[in-house]
Amino acid sequence: MIVTSLRLDLRLDGCFSLKDKRHVLRPLLEKARHHGLSAAEIADQDLWNMAGVGLAGVGRDGREAEKALRAVERFFEACPMVEIVGEDYAIERR
Length: 94
Prior knowledge:
- The chain has a single domain, classed as Alpha-Beta Plaits, CATH 3.30.70.
- The protein contains 2 helices and 4 strands; from the N terminus they run E-H-E-E-H-E.
- The protein has helices spanning about 20-35, 60-80, and strands at about 1-10, 40-45, 50-60, 80-94.
- The protein has a 4-stranded antiparallel β-sheet, covered by helices on one side.
- The longest helix has 17 residues, at about 20-35.
């Protein structure tokens, strides 16, 4: 079993309140869940223009698990209001 995780530090352009931030993050996190990943805002929860997002997945092999994480990362990168300013990727074999 392979466990993968990805932490993304995001800058959110155009967000001027926590409500704006939720409006941007909610569809991104839902997209991650549609790929079979766990997704949550894990840091900077009270800052309206920054977010720390954690993504995790489990797969039979590393390629399968990494593929899902990278697909979601590309979706985050494609969002015009989001800039990825940091990331930490890990793969663990169990």
